[in-house]
Fold each of these.
Amino acid sequence: MRLRLTNTAESIVRAGHPWLFADSIREQNREGKVGELAVIYDRNDKFLAAGLFDPDSPIRVRILHAGKPATIDAAWWQARLGQALSRRAGLFDATTTGYRLIHGESDGWPGLVLDRYATTLVMKLYTAAWLPRLEEVLAQFKEQIACERIVLRLSRNIQALAQKQFRRSDGQILFGAPPEGAVIFSENGVRFEADVLRGQKTGFFLDQRESRAAVERLAAGKKVLNAFSFSGGFSVYAARGGARLVTDLDISAHALASAKRNFELNKNYPAVAAGRHEMVQADAFEWIEKTPARFDLIVLDPPSLAKRAGEREGAIRAYERLNLLGINLLARGGILVAGSCSAHVPAAEFFDAVRRAAMKSGRKFIELKTLQHPPDHPAGFKEAEYLKVIYLRFAT
């Protein structure tokens, strides 16, 4: 199918943005089908770009290629996958078997991510446009990536269509045998379980690897609180780093049970075996506000507080309040690790919210560092910049 765009949208696509919204289409030669290749022409009737069409999404086209015309065939897909894999070459040694292989738009695979957990690959789709092309994509993955199985995960908004039209379901095994229980993988030598069939995202939060390693380096001898702890990723690292007590705080009993199992997986490390690990099932905001406990290191990494752009200002206020509450629980010399995964809250605004909280506390502090996206999660355009973490040490 052929599309022509508004002048503004044409300039945006030419500048490299991977999304084309429905209201940017000025002319369309016919009705489009999900997953169809849409070819976009500029105002001079010259090729501008090509992408995957999704008639039911506000993001009507996910751009695959822009610039000079190209033939998008099996060889093209093979080269595109090879580029993504090459970007990861040399990033990880044998002690890390869990990482991202394809990071959506930023790797030229818009709306698709592919994660490795040891010998299991998990592909998550955020647009239905990939559903008609699954067999083609699978063939490329099996040819270029050694694995025992490939699992399909689907964004909630496309699950009904996937089942009705394509007989695809969230957690479906696309290749290989189903796993017997959780998949076990390692990260810097720390072992974790990943619920690849039903867990959040693709089964684990691989993007916080660098922050977890930083917490390990800071944890020796400390009482550590990991709020919104999920399956205890930060906690196990802190324990291996020599924390004398680690407290997991989460509202989900299921998440806390996973954290307990992850500690058991790492009892081969003397520091993990020797340290105390306790779990609190509660609403993190309420517990932090009311507890009399004090900690030497606190990790505050909540789920996204801004699901939509209109929630941005409220989320910034919530981040400031949450981190002020956390700072009030820090002992003298304590360290705050504050994270956000809200794409609608820019890094500068999040960091400023945490700094305002620190200043409102009236305590002297120094900023140790900030972190954003790790190299296997590149952010190639503004909307992809979701992850940010800031480290503050309080002298008083």
Amino acid sequence: MSADSSKIRGTDLGFTMNRRELLIGAAGVAGAGALLAACGGDGASGPLNFGVRTVDEPPTTQFKALVAAYEAKTGNTVTYNATESNAFQNNLSQYLQGTPDDAFTWMAGYRMQFFADQGLLVDLTDVWDEIGDQYNESYKIASTGLDGKQYFVPQSWYPWGLHFRKSMLADLGIDPDGINNWDDFLKMLDGMKSKGLIGFAAADKGGWEAMGTFDIINARVNGYQYHVDLLAGREKWTDPRTAKVFEYWEQLIPYMNDNVLDLEWDGAMQLLLQRKAGAMLMGSWFGGNFKEQSDADYEDLWIIPFPEIDPANGRDTIDAPIDGYCVAKNGSNNDGGKDFLKFAGDMEGVQAMLDTGVPMTSANKGQDTSSYDAFQTQQLAVMAEAKYITQFLDRDTRPDFAGPVVGPELQNWFKNPKDVNKILESLQAQWDALPPL
């Protein structure tokens, strides 16, 4: 991986405060009328297939609303194909090299760039020429391949942070605004444990869930630059600074549920939803699951930044992945896929998803943030505190390293935390053995 490649990686969107300011900038739709006219309309692109990497109900509702709106506008037929998230992600390389759907949901940054560099994605530069003024420049950067062309259309973003129920913390007499550093955090966990609660709900059956915890502790202990350099191979997994991450992480184990490796992310979420756990580190996408349960459950959900560990780094970094869409080069209808994404990225397509009532922090700056509910507004506040934005470990490093190597090694660490040095040596050896990109 060349040093030059990092210049346009999604990982590096947060080097300046302008990135953050752009991300949460004021709402406003520019030139929407002309753009809507460009979104299909004549049915010429024909039927197409749309692959979605989720079977969960809240996003399914949104994606099906998007498809229905596109079909109504253009007369084109869209076949909707849904796959469970882990299965889709783990098999994407084979999927793209076979007979993939025409358009599909995917991730910004490095994970998109990797497949674009393999010639497996369609150039969407002309789509960006038509809808690009509806997005801040930071999103275009995250959608750009190593060759300077765009291969991705953003849909939404979400922060990773410490989630909890406001009512549970109130019952324990804990002020969430007072959870600023590691000591504050451990006091909160002790309070929950004394009440018979799981303090820190955790899951890693999918092999990716714990990556977010590694990301944030590494950023808090060693800083943003060390974190992104480690994932890019410019630092060593065997460095004592990496081992220090696991020293802090191990302190959380007594507060976790004892079946971490038996649960996927939604299992940990259920512990919080059912009031069996007091807090969980996860991306805020699951707000829709709380809202599906009841409005009261959703209104009880809150997020704060993960606490400071080293004051030199503060709480200056956050994982905030960008989700969206690509067109598969080996699909049967490239033009149809592009036409669909032109609509999906336009405010009309975005609005079809927003009209479902499922919470979504849209990447399109046409969304009026004044209409955000309290939980969405708090997500903006968490983002506003961050100086640096990372995508997520399995998006910020090579896909042939993240899933096949880091995922299983983190699972091995949960089985025996005292084996950390052996695990780090294995991680470095497997990185060193990777073929050149």
Amino acid sequence: MTVADLLDTLRITKQSLARVLKQLIDSGYIHQVAGPEDRRQRKLYTTKEGKTLARALAEPQSWRIAEAMEKTGPGARELVKRFLAGMKNADDN
């Protein structure tokens, strides 16, 4: 993913991203490489440590979601999907 793509996805300013991204790079979770055609472009890759961190952060929430979905009644999964789709910004399509 490029820095520009990440900024577009997160919808934050370059300044807001810069400090956090620097910490992730300095901590060894993200590896940054200059683009092959345009050296100003920065491509971001997760390192092995970054992937491990991402899984560790996502797992508790994934379990909570799975448990909540188990407790819902018939048709709830479709309702949740429609709700989440409705929460997206119109220009996210």
